[in-house]
Amino acid sequence: MGHTTMLSSKEIIIKTGISRATLNNYIKLGLLSKPVVQNPGNQGGGAKLLGYFPDGSLDRIELVRRLKTEGLTLAEIVARIGEKGNEDENREQTTEGVAAPPFLPNGRPLEPERRVLQPVSGGSASSGLLEFLSRRDVVIRDLLRQRLPVLTRLAVIVADLQNSEKIRSELPPEEYFELINEIGSVMGPIFRKYYGTRGKHVGDGIVYYFFPHPGSSYIFNALVCAQEVKRAVKTISKDWQLRKNWFNELYLNVGLDEGQEWLGTFQSATNIEFAVLGNTVDHATRLSDFARFGTVWATKNLLSKLTPEERPRVEFGINRRSESGHEQFVASSYSRLDSLVDLDSGRYETLRAIASLPITEVRLVTPEA
């Protein structure tokens, strides 16, 4: 038997960005082989025991991630690459594992007659549905299976790569696809960290939905996530500047809104896609079109729903131009979009639909301690 490099559960979590609960769930479902549990010694950071996995586990987690983005449910992924794919690894390892908490909620799945999710009013039924909806993979699984729309509150992030046509023309096709895939692979763990669910989007951009999640604010999650995405793109941009010796800056322009919309699926001949219908996605998409140089723009509607504890953690406002041409940032303020740009110009004609929408630029979000 050859020597196999082993990675601890902590290293797996750091390198992939998945949570410990997700790691345990992958073990339980047979997507990962059971770890070898042993004393890590001085490298354990105080832990007396850690689970260790073969380094091929990183590739396996990435494969699961890719299959999810292709629209497969977790059950379909298990059927395709589950326990059989781990038989050889399991034969080489100790079967003593880490107890894994159940991933799927107890009880029946969402029934067809319970298609509408009402706002939580303290009742146990509404609370149960809210908890059900907050489990991203569960929601996607049952929507794809039942193909039923569900009405719920959500926040939406839409982010588009600025000057994508120019960048596409300057790069060989294989490098352009490499860049887009790199952006996606870096962004994915960030969105998952804040309970974002990827949605349908046309072009080089991305759209993520944030549902009410027990124990955290879906609106604040979306704002913190947008800030982390902005920082991550700066790192990718610097790496590609060094690699290509060019002066292009990469920017993801971000738009956010919040609302109550229908979630459902669109089915083509080869795929099923998770989608949201309504003004919330449209507003976020148009704000992303309006944003430039990696700025984050949000609606007044979204920010007004932050709690009193969350509002001081968000720095936002509008750059105002005086009659003399001097610009000054006015904090905690909003503006109608048609007061910020000339909608008669070619670049902004598509924004007429949200001309009267109050918006603001989000400059800094301070995460909770």
Characterise this structure.
It is a single chain. By secondary structure, the chain is an alpha+beta fold. The protein has 2 domains: 6-91, Orthogonal Bundle (Multidrug-efflux Transporter Regulator, Chain: A, Domain 2); 124-296, Alpha-Beta Plaits (2-Layer Sandwich), CATH 3.30.70.1230. Helices cover 37% and strands 22% of the residues. The protein has 12 helices and 13 strands. The protein has helices at residues 9-16, 20-29, 56-69, 74-81, 87-91, 124-134, 136-146, 164-170, 173-193, 218-244, 279-290, 300-303, and strands spanning 6-8, 36-38, 50-54, 150-161, 196-198, 206-210, 252-267, 272-277, 296-299, 314-321, 327-331, 335-336, 358-365. Strands 4, 5, 6, 7, 8, 9, 10, 11, 12 and 13 form a 10-stranded mixed β-sheet that branches. Strands 1-3-2 form a 3-stranded antiparallel β-sheet. A hairpin with a 7-residue loop joins β5 and β6 (206-210). It is globular and about 70 Å long. Mean pLDDT is 79; it is low at 84-134.
